[in-house]
Each structure stands twice: as structure tokens, then as C-alpha cells.
């Protein structure tokens, strides 16, 4: 009976350690995912601004070709 209790205690300790490791890994994953999402949002903002700038360049080009008036619709 004592041997069974010792065995169960050892198994419980191993399980507890496994849960601790799992918790650490999940926390790392969440932190990494959050950082990557922030970088993705920042890159998306940069991409949007570059697209706006390019569209403005195209509009100005068309306006200049059209003698200063707005491009035809």
C-alpha cells in the first residue's frame, strides 16, 4: 500500500511538472503570436500608406496629362 502511494505521488509530481512545462510553452506561444500580430498590423499600415502614395502619384500624373483638370471618370 505504501509503495502504491509513493508511486501515485511520483506520478502526480511528474504530471504537475508536465503541466508547468505546457503552461510555459503556451505562454511563450501567446507572447510570440501577439508580437507577430503587432508586426503584421504595423506592416499593413505601411503597405496602406504606400498604396495611398502610389494612387496619389497616378492621380497627379493623370491630372498633369489632362492639362491640370481632374482625370475623366
Characterization of the model:
- The chain is an all-alpha fold and 73 residues long.
- It has a domain of 32 residues.
- Helices cover 88% and strands 0% of the residues.
- The chain is built from 1 helix and no strands.
- It is rod-shaped, with a radius of gyration of 30 Å.
- The mean pLDDT is 92.
SSE layout:
Elements: H1 2-65
What labels describe this entry?
rod-shaped, 73 residues
How would you concisely characterize the structure shown here?
The chain has 73 residues and is mainly α.
Which structural class should the secondary elements be placed in? Answer: mainly alpha
Order of helices and strands: H
Specify the overall morphology. Answer: rod-shaped
- Classify the beta-strand content into a percent band: under 5%
Q: How many helix segments?
A: 1
Number of strands: 0
List low-pLDDT spans.
Answer: none
The quaternary structure here is single chain
Radius of gyration: 30 Å
Indicate the mean pLDDT. 92
Assign a percent range to the helix content: over 70%
Instruction: Give the CA-CA distance, first to last residue.
Output: 89 Å
Question: Biggest sheet: strands, sense, closure?
Answer: none
Amino acid at each position: 500500500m505504501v509503495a502504491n502511494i509513493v508511486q501515485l505521488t511520483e506520478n502526480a509530481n511528474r504530471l504537475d511538472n508536465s503541466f508547468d512545462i505546457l503552461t510555459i510553452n503556451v505562454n511563450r506561444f501567446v507572447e510570440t503570436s501577439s508580437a507577430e500580430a503587432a508586426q503584421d498590423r504595423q506592416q499593413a499600415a505601411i503597405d496602406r500608406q504606400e498604396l495611398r502614395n502610389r494612387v496619389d502619384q497616378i492621380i497627379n500624373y493623370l491630372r498633369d496629362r489632362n492639362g491640370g483638370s481632374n482625370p475623366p471618370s
